[in-house]
């Protein structure tokens, strides 16, 4: 039986081990002193608390580049999400197999939702139709939406929307890159100012050939 200690877990997560033990106690998970936690049981307890031990049927609406890529992603099933249906408005798509599932026409959206007991919908349509797709999903009983379309969706109370925007993630990275570059430039400047200034020789010349590149502070 593989086990893990609270110290090991705390170090991996970068948190305090006493806090980690307290948090786990809320799950009803108490490790054995000197042994730690049974890994398999701990994973089950955390999954159960997060609602991941259930089978969640999910529909994806808009089976273009992104919808097909998501349908082909194998990582959902192992986390408790089953792609129950793929829906698209293009009649040419109807009946096509994507990731081993036949795409269904959006005319039947409401019936597909109710037949499969779907509460989670993924929207990967063009932004111009995302709101109307959202309205239909909600009217059919969907209460959670993962929206990839670059548009802000209006939903009634009781419906949760999560928006995924990879360009925002890139913008965050760009911001950090810019900050790193700024810090590096400041460090170089500080190093240049701190460096002892020797006699200017040919390698110290500035662009016009007679001004030292590094002036005394
Ligand atoms: N969030 C992100 O980071 C991210 C990244 C890439 C793309 N996107 C967005 O994802 C969406 C899809 O991008 P894509 O490249 O897959 O586009 P795509 O054109 O390849 O696919 C869109 C699909 O939606 C279908 N469709 C159109 N109207 C529909 C409707 N009313 N009901 C059902 N299906 C309908 C089309 O037939 C098509 O198959 C776009 O809104 C795009 O801007 C978001």
From TrEMBL:
> Might you name a Gene Ontology BP term for this protein?
response to redox state
- Compartments, as annotated in UniProt: Cytoplasm
Recorded hits in InterPro entries, A to Z, give: CoA-bd, NAD(P)-bd_dom_sf, Rex_actinobacterial-type, Rex_DNA-bd_C_dom, Tscrpt_rep_Rex, WH-like_DNA-bd_sf, WH_DNA-bd_sf
Give GO cellular component annotations, separated by semicolons.
cytoplasm
Could you list this entry's UniProt keywords, alphabetically sorted.
Answer: Cytoplasm, DNA-binding, NAD, Repressor, Transcription, Transcription regulation
What SUPFAM superfamilies is this protein classified in?
NAD(P)-binding Rossmann-fold domains, Winged helix' DNA-binding domain
How does the annotation summarize its subunit structure?
Homodimer.
Q: Which family does it belong to?
A: Belongs to the transcriptional regulatory Rex family.
Q: What is the designated name of this protein? A: Redox-sensing transcriptional repressor Rex
Q: What is the lineage of its organism?
A: Bacteria, Bacillati, Actinomycetota, Actinomycetes, Kitasatosporales
